[in-house]
Amino acid sequence: MSRLPESLHVLERGWLSSNNILLFEGDRAILVDTGYVSHAEQTVALVRSALDGRRLTDIVNTHSHSDHIGGNAAVQRAFGCRITVPAGMHDAVQQWDENALLLSVAGQAGDRFTADTKAHPGDTREMGGLHWEALAAPGHDMDALMYFNRDHGVLISGDALWRDGFGILFADVLGTGDGLGEARRTLDAIARLPVRHVIPGHGAPFDEVDEALAAAYARLRAFEEDGSRMARNAIRGCVTFSLLDMRRIALADLPGWLDRTPLFRIANDRFLHETPERLADWLVDSLVKAGVARREGDWLVAA
User: Fold this and answer.
1) Is the dihedral of CA 224, 228, 233, 239 positive or negative?
2) 3-class DSSP assignment, residue 205
3) C-alpha distances out from residue 182 to 25, 52, 70, 126, 140, Å
4) What are the E-state strand segments in 39-144?
5) Which helix (H) or strand (E) segment is 265 a member of?
6) DSSP SS3 for 48
7) DSSP E strands: which ranges in 77-120?
8) Can you say whether the dihedral through the CA atoms of 59, 65, 71, 73 is positive or negative?
9) 35 and which of 17, 89, 94, 179 could share a cystine (Cβ 3.0–4.6 Å)?
10) Phi, psi of 300, deg, nearest 5
11) Residue 274 neighbours by CB under 8 Å, 6+ apart
């Protein structure tokens, strides 16, 4: 990858926590996204080391999901910084609506915080001595924002675009909105921008923008043609996420867990129509074949 502006420092995390992006200007810094709550202590340590004596003034979130906001409270306690969230998620944060934030829906956890300011699509702000535009990025999260610097062609994409796709389309799986259509419109918007570098929410920064867009469009078409693929992707992705946090789950408990967790139950009811036991059998086989989990006696263990 060609060089990013020197004021940008990317802390690439594992899949459980989103990447953390530090933007430096003089003795100050801004942090974009803070990872999952289970990693909050590690996030604080990583940020403190990278700051190297600078003052963290702000956290800016791209969207509301637990792997992007989970460290907000701990980072704010550690550094006394302000928190800016997308305007569309502001009320859910202030009221700590765990359903709207997809915490209770997806069986995930969060540490409550309050937001200091809202960011709207079209807003501009200085971060790291660079001028950034906030751009609407609905699809994976209907209220998500991306941040684009035109001078260097850098896009902080959150989960709207990864090197090999994009984040789960929860609205379509849950039946609450047109995530497919919104994701396509977001990809079209990215394709119209003079993007040269992408810093995604997960995975290494990359320059292969056209290839990433082609992969994202291909995944989108597959989901549009077969909703069951989208549902299975959501179940597999969220269970992998939870398994990385829990480290293991008893195989005997898996059907009940899938049936109790709203996201998994709704995805199954709307698209798959499997018994919880058959769904659990498929899931275990899929995760083991993908190399993200293994069987150890009566347990499914994160690989």
Assistant:
1) positive
2) coil
3) 34, 40, 25, 27, 9
4) 55-60, 82-86, 117-119, 124-127, 130-136
5) helix 262-267
6) helix
7) 82-86, 117-119
8) positive
9) 17
10) -100, 120
11) 268, 282
In tens digits, what is the pLDDT along the chain, a chain of 303 residues? 668 999 999 999 988 999 999 999 999 999 999 999 999 999 999 999 999 999 999 999 999 999 999 999 999 999 999 999 999 999 999 999 999 999 999 999 999 999 999 999 999 999 999 999 999 999 999 999 999 999 999 999 999 999 999 999 999 999 999 999 999 999 999 999 999 999 999 999 999 999 999 999 999 999 999 999 999 999 999 999 999 999 999 999 999 999 999 999 999 999 999 999 999 999 999 999 999 999 999 999 999
Helix (H) or strand (E) holding 11: strand 8-11
Report the DSSP pairing between strands 55-60 and 82-86.
Answer: parallel
Q: How far apart are the first and last CA of the chain?
A: 29
Coil, strand or helix: which one is 282? helix
Q: In whole angstroms, what is the distance from residue 107 CA to residue 156 CA? A: 27
Q: Structure tokens of 251? A: 């195989």
Q: Which residues contact 82 (CB under 8 A, 6 or more apart)?
A: 57, 58, 59, 116, 117
Q: How far apart are CA 132 and CA 232, in angstroms?
A: 36
Report d(CA 61, CA 132) in Å as an integer: 14
Q: Which two tokens stand for residue 124?
A: 């501009």
DSSP symbols for 140-203: SSTT-EEEEETTTTEEEEETS-BTTB----HHHHHTSS-HHHHHHHHHHHHHHS---EEEESSS
| Cβ contact 251:298 at 8 Å | yes
